[in-house]
Amino acid sequence: MHQLTKGLCPDEIKAAGLGDYYTDHGVDVYPQSAAGVPFTAAYIAAKGDPIANLQEDLAAEQKARATYEKLIDLCCDDPDVLDPLRFLREREVVHFQRFGEALRGVQDKLAEKRFFMNDINMKNMMSNNCDGCSNCNSNNCGCN
């Protein structure tokens, strides 16, 4: 915002359609939608399920990428505006790829066969791997 308004007089800021924004926020960044709706934590989707959460993250990255592409389409040929938008668009693509990798990792982990051991097997394992814990002397650790 500072780069776009640097050196502008109030009439130029108003002519650019930024008068209301400038009145409320000066040249500071204030998170809001293009329609002026402020950001709230209600936009954060957390379901308590890693697959659902990662799917939501993937969708958010694609929505952000699409938004940057639309901004680039609407933008002038000013490299001070285009270059950051292109960088941010590419960052969304990379985030989408990383979330995809995380999703595949979680799906693979959840698909692994689970196995359980009974107490006798656990005691045998512990006795084979005992490192001389202080409980061994009192026969409370199960190693003996």
Provide tags for this entry:
0% strand; elongated; 6 helices; single chain; 144 residues
Task: Please render the helix and strand layout as text.
Blueprint lengths: L1 H4 L4 H6 L3 H7 L24 H25 L4 H33 L7 H10 L16
Helix pairs in contact: 4-5
What does this structure look like?
The structure is a single chain. By secondary structure, the protein is an all-alpha fold. It has 3 domains: 1-44, no CATH class; 46-112; 114-144, no CATH class. Helices cover 59% and strands 0% of the residues. It has helices at 2-5, 10-15, 19-25, 50-74, 79-111, 119-128. Helix 4 (50-74) runs antiparallel to helix 5. The radius of gyration is 28 Å and the shape is elongated. The relative contact order is 0.07. The mean pLDDT is 82.
